[in-house]
Design a protein that fits this description.
alpha/beta, 3 domains, Aspartate Aminotransferase, domain 2, 7-stranded mixed β-sheet, Arc Repressor Mutant, subunit A, Aspartate Aminotransferase, domain 1, homodimer
Chain lengths: 465, 465
């Protein structure tokens, strides 16, 4: 006989009957193939309406606990033993986090103070208009067409890149776009990489199963000679501002690289232009893509440095051959990037806000860089080594006190300052001239934080000469 | 001698000098290794200040056109021939698009009328507070912790899923998360898939290099027998509402599948719970994950159907063994999902808006489904075949007029109505009972559009009995 053992207030009556019958089936009170009382009978015995029992039986049938046999009634389905369901696991109350440093010289942060919060909020509000159905719909794989148009126009003006909206692929940041690229390059395609290199790009190409050929860079970036006899290869380079060493590729090397790509079979150049917007003593260098007329350059850009790392929007500009491969491979898929943010970014670029923001930020970062340089020179004097061109968001620094990279990082951390090792960026063993160097990013720090950080570094590193 | 040939108004003087020297180098007027006039001399001859020439020379040096030799002056760097730069390619004026249907029975659209635009806009505005640095920072790979907490609580209440924020991975929709999953499963892991199946999932696993084992489903979903002797295998299933056939997996089959997974080596079940929220006659069925106590179920959910396809946010709930593999593989990477939208979604769930929205939408979709069913029955009478349980956003329909799938689609399109073939979802040849069936989604259509669409389908299909 079915009785309601545990009345749980706050649950509808039919649900309590459903739960009770489930318990009875699991507990063996109701055996497999056993016939249940008719709805009318059970309703009468529980003192509820037939509709209530009907709802409970319907739920049990839909989940497969009961089967309804026409003209005969409801029967218990045979089940293998089911283990008891558990209570909800306890949740930790605070987000797990790394030990937070007092001053963090991360190279991945942007200035939080000068972000155009008001403009962005206004664009969000205006873009998210009532009843704009387009905002709910799946975005085509290449991304919002208006945003692609805005990026194409910006790229021509600012970076000399030749493209139309049709050859642009919007993606969820550089790592995602490198994955997309890996799919459309032949599987057998080797990736030649600068050594040292942006290590996440290296991990992605490795993970995607490409052979990786590390090429040690010189003062002009990636040399062409080690590539001379290679075919079916894509060369990943950061010509505007090599990561992490900061050298830029002069025009002569650029032309050599292009000629090399044109001369062989299936040769491509992946130009990661990740922070080209920030050059402080001269204007940004024109892109490699701008002087490519053989369809050899794949251009990769993001808004990670120029707007914010949390805005996961980047883009590829594909040459014609790879664009067809992309269209074939990705037909039927959707964009991974939120439509709303694509639209907001589009208005940000179109309205001239992006250009104004870049101009402002160049001044801001130039100031921070000068401050950091001066503070370091004052703290460490002539033994200080500094590397990295007048660009980007970081410096390579060696205090010249004989400490190793890991000693420098550990001593800094003891004083509450996080600085970053550069050895993870080397695919091969780190060469002697870069030992004892660490990476100091300054984009996310205020002037006071920079000064405080350097003072603490002096304590951390100064004693051990 | 350097002269300014083309004065371009609107450009600073130093830039015009820079451009002229570049032209002279490209044009051979200035030869490789040729010495340039001193800054002072050139300034005098052009009638500009030395600072202006200095800026032009600095830019040319930074790009590698000139080299500065201390005490000796500026020299032209040797360059291989560079081809002429081209004008900006012409842009098409309108977004390229598919032929738009008058009525589109797409299964991928959501109702645009009942979207909580005002709430979402308010949450956007409130979330994007001035000076909230957290919104600019890179999100850790698993996603925003507060959102993960909100999802864990929702999942337990609504789907019986057992998890904490720590075992949730936020990703940019189902396709992205299946890719992530593919990385953390062993490469040698076979993926067993329901046949027919959500074809993008199939494409992704194939592309990622997994062997795929198609298993024909029966009326209870995926049978366990074909898997009996398999090890090192993950089974991709949609137990709440099979896509595209719409069957749901009864409790007995669920238990069998779990027991099978527990009995072998490296066996996992991927539960894609893609539209479990929408069941119209009974309550949503509890998830497979809720009765798994062997750590065998990988739970996949998205907000594609429950909020909007344009919101690219989904999540995985990983069992402990795979969670460690994930953490190892993804350390150092960032989330692909915009932080802002993660925060807004978090507030949407926490504030109870999500639950209210689901309740409202169940009623809305139930009404649309009933309307479509009634209109189809009236139009096609007793020869009409209809399949798909009382759930989801689509029906499988065959008018019973002997037309093939492609004839049905083409005839509908001629009348301006888009209906969808189901053969693309079959990995093997489509079985006889599903020929002559097409897929009609109704989520994005209004009542009037549904009625108009069916009237046009009657014209398209009715004549040819």
């Amino acid at each position: 006989m079915i009785t309601l053992e545990h009345k749980t207030p706050g649950h509808p009556l039919y649900w309590q009957i459903y739960e009770q019958i489930k318990r009875d089936i699991h507990g063996g009170v109701l055996a497999a193939e056993e016939k249940l009382p008719s709805k009318r009978k059970l309703a009468a015995s529980l003192g509820v309406s037939v509709t209530t029992v009907d709802a409970a039986y319907a739920q049990l049938v839909s989940e497969g606990f009961l089967s309804a046999r026409p003209q005969r009634g409801f029967f218990v389905c045979p089940l293998e033993e089911l283990k008891k369901s558990q209570p909800r696991p306890a949740e930790t109350e605070k987000a797990p986090g790394e030990k937070k440093a007092e001053v963090d010289f991360s190279s991945g942060a942007v200035d939080p103070e000068h972000f155009p919060y008001n403009t962005w909020r206004r664009l969000l509000k205006n873009t998210f208009n009532e009843y704009d159905e387009g905002l709910l719909r799946r975005t085509p794989p290449q991304g919002d067409w208006e945003l692609r148009r805005a990026i194409a126009a910006y790229l021509y003006d600012a970076r000399g890149v030749h493209c139309t909206a049709d050859s642009i692929i919007i993606g969820a940041g550089a790592e995602h776009l490198l994955q997309v690229l890996s799919y459309i390059l032949e599987n057998s395609c080797t990736i030649a990489m600068e050594n040292p290199v942006y290590n996440r790009a290296y991990q992605i190409f490795q993970r995607m199963g490409h052979g990786v050929l590390p090429v040690d860079i010189d003062g002009a970036g990636m040399p062409v000679e080690p590539l001379a006899d290679k075919q079916n290869i894509a060369v990943y380079v950061t010509p505007s501002h090599q990561f992490p060493l900061g050298v830029s590729m002069p025009i002569s090397r650029r032309i050599k690289l292009l000629r090399w790509a044109e001369a062989g079979k299936n040769r491509y150049i992946i130009e990661d232009d990740y922070d080209s917007e920030f050059r402080y003593l001269t204007r940004p260098l024109p892109s490699l893509q701008s002087i490519d007329d053989g369809g050899k350059v794949i251009y990769l850009g993001t808004f990670t440095k120029s707007i914010a790392p949390s805005l996961r929007i980047g883009f590829l500009v594909l040459p014609p051959a790879l664009l067809s491969a992309y269209k074939e491979e990705y037909a039927g898929f959707g964009s991974l990037v939120s439509r709303l943010e694509q639209r907001v970014l589009c208005e940000f670029i179109r309205g001239g806000h992006f250009e104004r923001h870049l101009n402002k930020m160049r001044t801001v970062y130039r100031g921070k860089r000068a401050l950091l340089e001066r503070a370091l020179r004052e703290a460490f004097g002539p033994s200080l080594g500094m590397q990295g061109e007048n660009a980007g968001h970081h410096l390579l620094v060696s205090p010249g006190n004989g400490m190793s990279e890991s000693e420098l990082c550990a001593a800094a951390m003891k004083q509450g300052v996080r600085v970053y090792p550069i050895s993870p960026y080397f695919i091969r063993e780190i060469p002697a001239e870069h030992r004892g160097q660490v990476l100091l990013g300054y984009g996310g720090l205020s002037g006071e934080e920079i000064e405080k950080g350097v003072a603490l570094l002096k304590k951390a590193w100064g004693m051990q000469r």
